[in-house]
Amino acid sequence: MNKHKENILGRCDCDQIQYTVKQSPLYVHCCHCSWCQRESGAAFAINALIESSAIELTHGEPALINTPSESGGGQLMARCPNCQVALWSHYPSFGKLMSFIKVGTLDNPSLMPPDIQIFTQSKQQWFELPTDMPAFKRFYNRDEMWPKASLLRLHELSSQLPSQNS
């Protein structure tokens, strides 16, 4: 199922921030939640979940902006300080260890197509879901959907989280 490629280039609109994705993402979401629609200004957002260590900044430094999220936990949105394009987000569950890359910022977004459609209960009525891709009204069980290799990488990432007991 490793249809994704490595060493994919990405950038903001003004080229002040440029980056390389050094390995395939863990999984790619096409999210139809109303929050993603509002943030992206589009009918959905496509986010590639990946270890932050797999993103190499090759030019510039994004600003991290604390942004609200539907969960109430917020997110840190990495934006170009000049053109304000959102490049990726960090959510509280993994903090800065995991990034949700905004696939539209890749030089060739078609190299990271979605693996799954989520929060379809709030999708735009005119959008027809692909019949050859899993779709869920809300979220899904990661253990049932992700490839084993991605689950192993996620487990490794989890081991880097601070202990809940400290």
Features:
alpha+beta, 3-stranded antiparallel beta sheet, single chain, globular, 7-stranded mixed beta sheet, 166 residues
Description:
With 166 residues, the chain is of the alpha+beta class. It has a single domain, classed as glutathione-dependent formaldehyde- activating enzyme (gfa) (Alpha-Beta Complex). 13% of the residues lie in helices and 29% in strands. It contains three helices and ten strands, in the order βββαβββββββαα. Strand 8 and strand 9 (98-102) form a beta hairpin. The longest helix has 11 residues, at 148-158. The protein is globular and about 40 Å long.
Short description:
The chain is of the alpha+beta class and 166 residues long. It contains 3 helices and 10 strands.
Question: Segments where pLDDT lies below 50 for 5+ residues?
Answer: none
The CATH class turns out to be Alpha Beta
Tell me the major beta sheet: 7 strands, mixed
Number of helices: 3
- In spatial order, strands of the major sheet run 6-7-8-9-4-3-10
Q: Quick one: overall form?
A: globular
* Average of the residue pLDDT scores: 92
The amount of helix comes to 10-25%
Count of extended strands: 10
What is the H/E order?
Answer: EEEHEEEEEEEHH
What do we call the CATH homologous superfamily?
Answer: glutathione-dependent formaldehyde- activating enzyme (gfa)
The CATH architecture assignment turns out to be Alpha-Beta Complex
